[in-house]
Amino acid sequence: MTPNKKKRKVSTSDVKSLSDGSASKKTKFGSSNASKKELKESFKLSKKPKIRNGPMFNKTISGDGKKEILSNRDRRLRAKELAEARKKKRKRHYNLEQELASLWEKMRHRNIAKEERSKLITEAVQKMKGKIPEIASSHVSSRVLQTCVKYCSQTERDAIHSELKPHFLTLACNTYAVHLVNKMLDNASKKQLAEFISALRGHVASLLRHMVGSVVVEHAYQLGNASQKQELLLELYSTELQLFKDLASLKETKLLDVISKLSLQKASVLRHMNAVIQPIIEKGIVDHSILHRLLMEYLSVADKSSAAEMLQQLSSPLLVRMIHTRDGSRLGILCIKHGSAKERKKIIKGMKGHIGKIAHDQYGSLVLACIFSTVDDTKLVTKIIISELQSVLKELVLEKSGRRPLLQLLHPNCSRYFTPDDMTSLNLYVPSLSAKGEPEADSKMKSAKDQESSDNEDSSVKGITMAEGKESTNADYLHLVEGGKKDPSLRRRELLVDSGLAESLVDTCTKNVAELLRSNFGKEVLYEVATGGWDDILHPTMNEQLNKLHEAIASLAAKSKSEESGEEHVLENFHSSRTIRKMVLDSSKFATTLWTKALKGKCGLWAEGHSSKVICAYLESSDAKVREMAKNELQPLVDSGLLKMRESRK
């Protein structure tokens, strides 16, 4: 340890000598003799002089080495010039791109004359000739080329196509050039499209794993005919089909037929397909219909463990991005049917915030219908799905696809509202995972060729088997779906009545009764609600609200023709007259309300035209009380020939 040094004491004389020093010395602030004036002067001396170096006075060095002061404007201009110089150094065709950009600003306007646009396009194509592959990846030039391809002549389009043909695969993976490739596909001739699809051969799997390249493959798949689609799909099935072009020229469209025709090893095919599919799903590139088709074919040949593992992987929020296509919705239905309660919960939670959009989609609405028919957790379905449907109820009722989830609750699996293809989708199951298909899954897959025609791809899904009872009758409803353990009628009541959806639905119908009656799609929802739904599910809980709805319809029918000057009377309108007629035939309560409030004593006015169908319905009713109620007034009209009865009830 070093010894402590003794501090020297400062005497008063030392302080005086310091304070009496030369004028250049700074005054000590702690000095007792320093006055306030001296302190101020010393503080001023300690300040550094200001240098004029603000934003308005930026010093730069000119070429001769002298400093000059530039204003903000000059500084910006100088920076712009430097940036331009750097771009010219970096980009080989920078000047050409600038010229093309100025031409593009003129040619892209909608109100420009065709002759003027043709001149500009011809000039642009001439400038680009021989350099198109080099500038196609540019942000600016790719836009110019897209406009040229869209509006140019066929000769100019062929010239552009021939220049870009050797570079299609490179351009397909470029962020900017991909839009040009898609535009070229849209405007391509049949021969050019076939050449492009042939150029993709051997690269389909790698492009599908690419975020940008997958868009081009999907676009080509959508534009191609059946054989071209099959050509793109076949190389994803096995290595042999990818390597040998002759093997890929098959008429068979289903994977089961391909395996049987070429005697391929099923295990090898599954391994190859799994190696193709897994990286695509892991990257989240699941929006494309070609992948959905591939997954459906995979499930048609997969064994129990492989199929279960694949469906478990798909049972996630990613599924929402898949159900907008035909095969994608079928994948969603299979995930719901064969999934566990935990997986179904994951799927439904992933739909949160998107229910309205899904319901309006042609294929997404089928997935909602399947959820209503399968999922036993009605509290979860009510909380996430029903609550969102209630907020857009009027729009759904009037929309072709949006009404289908509602009709599935009101009248399950009715062939009037679901097409045969829709019913096929709702009745699908994976044989290897189903209790019905598991014991004889292999034999079913082997005999699938005899059961379905390979020429009709859309008729059904081979290997993904339909449930027993394809007829869309109410008696078969209990056997149509798999996975749900709860009694179907109890599930329906919890989702429709107990959730409050029925009350909202009746209220919406009552408020918009005139619009719904005249609507092509809304009339069907109105009919189901007014008649109480299949199996009278709305009775007796909603009796009071239904009586109000009946009165609202009767009030419209009671109006005279002159009162509805702007619109056709509901009894004379094509859609509304037929809907009211069906209500009279199927609901005695409604028939009584309509007769008492609107038709009694006035039938002679409505004995001709579309309204006569409503009047005749009273004599055709299966309810004896309804027939007797109207017989005294209607029989004289029939006898006189004023009211013509239908020969047979359809």
Task: Describe this entry's structure for a reader.
With 650 residues, the protein is mainly alpha-helical. Helix content is 60%, strand content 2%. It is built from 39 helices and 4 strands. It has a two-stranded antiparallel ribbon with strand order 1-2. Strands 3-4 form a two-stranded antiparallel sheet. A hairpin with a 5-residue loop joins strand 1 (58-61) and strand 2 (67-70). The longest helix has 19 residues, at 72-90. The radius of gyration is 39 Å and the shape is globular. The protein starts with 11 loop residues before the first helix and ends in an 11-residue tail after the last helix. The model is unreliable at 15-34, 50-57, 437-462 and 467-482 (pLDDT under 50). GO terms for molecular function: mRNA binding. Keywords: Repeat, RNA-binding, Translation regulation. One of its GO terms (biological process) is regulation of translation.
